[in-house]
Amino acid sequence: MYENAFNKIERDLRAEEGIANELDYVEQTSWVLFLKYLHDLETERQDRAELNGEDYTPIINGGFRWDKWAAPKVDGEFDHNAARIGDDLITFVDQKLFPYLAAFRQSATGPQTIQYKIGEVFTELRNKFRSGYILRDVLATVDALSFNTQAQRHELSQLYESRIKRMGNAGRNGGEYYTPRPLIRAMIKVTDPKIGETIYDGAVGSAGFLCEAYTYMRSDTLSASDFETLQTRTFYGQEKKGLAYIIGIMNMVLHGIEAPNLVHSNTLNENVMDIQEKDRHDVILANPPFGGGERREVQQNFPIRTGETAYLFLQHFIRKLRAGGRAAVVIKNTFLSNTDNASVALRKELLEAAELHTILDCPQGTFQGAGVKTVVLFFEKGAPTRDIWVYQLDPGRSMGKTNPLNDDDLAEFVELQHIRASGPKSWIVKRADLDEDTFDLSLKNPNAPEAEALRSPEEIIKDMLARDAETAGILENIRGML
């Protein structure tokens, strides 16, 4: 049912001139899904209140309720007479609905409330539907979807994730929002977050890390108080880009987190020297954007000043971690060996401020469309680095769109990491053996079989001449037989 619904929405959107690509598809699907989700949530809360003999005041009132404008009904049947269509529907959405919802940002009691999230979403978003007839078809399809059970939300979340993944093929910016879920799950298993700890991603994107961590930590045996903690006081994130912020909110909602603690802001605008204990977290999971370049005034917020965005994020994460806290952060593998001042200084800081206990070396093609190799740094705050366990991930095949990373590829890494075993693909780097001037962490597997020495040019030429002479002799013999 849900797969068919998503496919129908996609077919409708292909005919909509205001929607140009996969990014627009996910964005416009998101706001419609979000409003249907809110309606189902409010209906559930109202029913619960009535059962308890309590009053309930809806967040969204009057003609802005889903069942008044999106799917008006009489006796459970769609009311064609009350439903807006064509230009009338588009005018209502653009000039009344969106401004009404955006105003919640000012009227909400605080940034962690669902009212504030509604205001944030509809301040950022613009309706790109131009045909009220196509929008009407999409609204009818979404109205048939239900968010009432965990199983339903799970199926919807999987379909939504598949659309986010496809955004990576819609252009360079789309790929910024998607980290392979098997890699995320491996990072979570190693950091092993617990109920009562807080989890943070300062480059939240589509919120894949927070959603997977929620799935990892949630179980049917949780007490009511633990579930409340998981819902409201566990997951935190920040995101700079408007579209990614919207997608992240919707992704968390579909995974079952009712009011995500996501903030729409540039994480790097925060001066890391102002971070206090109350701002810190127990677990950090992130894949910060690399490349690019931040303005000089942003670089002033960091002791190690650099235009490399990922280096600024890494400094932020080191200071955002509580003593004893654990982090897993994806970064370009060139960080391990670059000789520029910022790279050297940052490696030194990481080794001294935290115990860098594990490096996962990812193969080329782990991130589809990215031309760089990456590593995952696992570190714990509070004690300097001693020995580093390195694992060289080798799935035994070329990675790509048709051969993406899967959970089985990472099973051995997760198993061996706990015992830090050495083997053909893993080894220990001793802190005492590092160069004190460069802190170079270049990965060279000492346990890999040595490659055969390359032959000299003279040997190659001699071999070629011998083969030519042999071929000439064979040809002479054949000619003699003719």
TrEMBL record:
Enzyme Commission designation: 2.1.1.72
Record domain DNA methylase adenine-specific: where: 152-451
Domain (N6 adenine-specific DNA methyltransferase N-terminal): residue spans on this chain: 11-80
Keyword annotations: Methyltransferase, Restriction system, S-adenosyl-L-methionine, Transferase
GO biological process, one term: DNA restriction-modification system
Alphabetical list of PANTHER family matching this protein: SLR6095 PROTEIN (PTHR42933), TYPE I RESTRICTION ENZYME ECOKI METHYLASE SUBUNIT (PTHR42933:SF4)
Coiled-coil boundaries: none
Family assignment from sequence similarity: Belongs to the N(4)/N(6)-methyltransferase family.
Catalytic activity: a 2'-deoxyadenosine in DNA + S-adenosyl-L-methionine = an N(6)-methyl-2'-deoxyadenosine in DNA + S-adenosyl-L-homocysteine + H(+)
UniProt protein name: site-specific DNA-methyltransferase (adenine-specific)
Transmembrane segments: none
GO MF entry, a single one: DNA binding
InterPro entries per record: D12N6_MeTrfase_N, DNA_Adenine_Mtase, DNA_methylase_A-5, DNA_methylase_N6_adenine_CS, SAM-dependent_MTases_sf, T1MK-like_N_sf
Top-level taxon: Bacteria
